[in-house]
């Protein structure tokens, strides 16, 4: 019985996780506190975005690996 109570406690704790489970639903979002949001791409398909992930802008602008920058510099 004790194990069941502990198991149910762990399950209820995990059910309230920070990662939103429903694609496209940002109703959980709190300005400055939320880490993950759903953001649609050009076709409207939602993708989970980590707002605290590091940006790699230096790699994105490397002309040897990016055709767009290769032809527009």
TrEMBL record:
Residues 1-16 form the signal peptide. Keywords: Signal. The keyword Signal applies. The keyword Signal applies. This is S9 family peptidase.
């Amino acid at each position: 019985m004790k194990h069941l109570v502990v198991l149910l406690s762990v399950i209820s704790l995990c059910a309230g996780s920070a990662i939103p489970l429903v694609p496209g639903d940002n109703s959980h979002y709190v300005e400055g506190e939320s880490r993950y949001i759903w953001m649609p791409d050009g076709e409207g398909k939602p993708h989970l975005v980590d707002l605290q992930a590091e940006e790699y802008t230096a790699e994105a602008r490397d002309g040897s690996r990016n055709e767009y920058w290769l032809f527009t510099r």
